[in-house]
Design goal:
By secondary structure, this protein is an alpha+beta fold. It contains 9 helices and 19 strands. Strands 1, 2, 3, 4, 7, 10, 11, 12 and 13 form a 9-stranded mixed sheet that branches. Strands 15-18-17-16-14-19 form a 6-stranded mixed sheet. Strands 5-6 form a two-stranded antiparallel ribbon. Strand 10 and strand 11 form a beta hairpin.
């Protein structure tokens, strides 16, 4: 049992791409055999971008969605990273590794893994909803400024306290022991390899993550993604903008408010924005609000400051867009 994946191979691209700066996000279908940082470096080189960042690391063996934020859109990365993530994964029972995945050293083997399906489904049921999860010792979390995986490679294992994460869905797709292929929709900060290890421990035999593909992130799916080869081809033909998602559409799970000149003027001068001014209905709890113009260009993102009641604080503002649109806003407010 395994997951379908693409293997990364270095390629060439025509340097014909336009030199104009492109802002927005590019959803990359990451292949196996390359790190997330490697994908970012490749995209930056292909697009000649000044800045590129991603919204959630995928290990080199993993495949699937890696959202790359381009230029000014890098300011949205901290928001996009908090979106829900969906994965298709393979849990291999009976083998524990020090990294909790297929890349680690085997630390124990259990031969007796003849479980009934009801036992397996019951184990998965224990890890749904709000759960406490201990981050793996091989992770990018830091201890005194040093990533845990660097300490672990030197034999110094640091255990972080358990954190609350949320498993919205987990569905078993196939059982072919010792492998179990399943799908999971989880919150930001969830480690699927830790989930695999915990389910294996719950069954009493241990287990590790043997395959992983991210199929959804912050509302974007594999249908929205492009391979590195496709990106190279489009860039060579100066058509990459066909795959760039506008910043106004990047935050798919965030409600939008259309700005008129009055609202744009308040934002331009950094004045407080109140809930009553945005035509937000009572009973709807908005963590973030995106302000867009009549062309769906992102002007600002606001965050509700609960300490100040109905007042929103600024997360990010794009004043150059406002300056270009000055005098050209719609005459009223509206929710999208």
């Amino acid at each position: 049992m395994g997951l379908s994946c693409r293997v990364y191979q270095k390629g060439r691209y025509d340097k014909k791409i336009s030199d104009k700066m492109i802002d927005g996000i590019l959803v990359v279908n990451k292949p196996t055999g390359i790190s997330s940082a490697g994908v970012v470096a490749r995209v930056k080189k292909i697009l000649k971008a000044k800045r590129v960042g991603h919204t959630g690391t995928l290990d080199p063996f993993a495949t699937g969605i890696l959202i790359c934020c381009l230029n000014r859109a890098t300011r949205l990365a901290s928001l996009l990273v908090q979106g829900k993530k969906r994965y298709e994964a393979v849990l291999r029972l009976g083998v524990r590794t020090d990294t909790q995945d297929l890349t680690g050293e085997v630390i124990s083997v259990e031969r007796n893994i003849s479980f009934k399906e009801s036992e397996i489904y019951s184990a998965f049921e224990r890890f749904r909803g709000k759960i406490l999860q201990t981050p793996p010792p091989f992770s990018a979390l830091k201890h005194r400024g040093v990533p845990l995986y660097k300490l672990a490679r030197k034999g110094s294992y640091v255990e972080k306290p358990p954190r609350t994460v949320f498993i919205y869905e987990s569905n078993i797709l196939e059982i072919a022991l010792p492998d179990i292929r399943f799908e999971v929709l989880c919150s930001h900060g969830t480690y699927v390899r830790a989930l695999c290890a915990d389910i294996g421990d719950a069954l009493g035999c241990g287990g590790h993550l043997a395959g992983l593909c991210r199929t959804e992130n912050a509302g974007f799916t594999l249908k929205d993604s492009s391979t590195l080869e496709e990106i190279e081809e489009l860039a060579s033909k100066d058509r990459i903008e066909e795959r760039i998602i506008n910043m106004g559409d990047a935050l798919k799970e965030v409600s939008a408010v259309f700005a008129n000149e009055w609202l744009a003027q308040k934002i331009r001068h950094g004045q407080p924005i109140f809930k009553r001014e945005l035509n937000i209905k009572d009973g709807i709890d908005h963590l973030w609000i995106k302000i867009v113009d009549s062309d769906n260009n992102l002007i600002a993102v606001l965050d509700r400051d609960t300490r100040r009641g109905a007042c929103y604080k600024y997360v990010c503002v794009f004043p150059d867009i406002m300056n270009k649109k000055k005098g050209g806003f719609k005459s009223g407010l509206g929710r999208k």
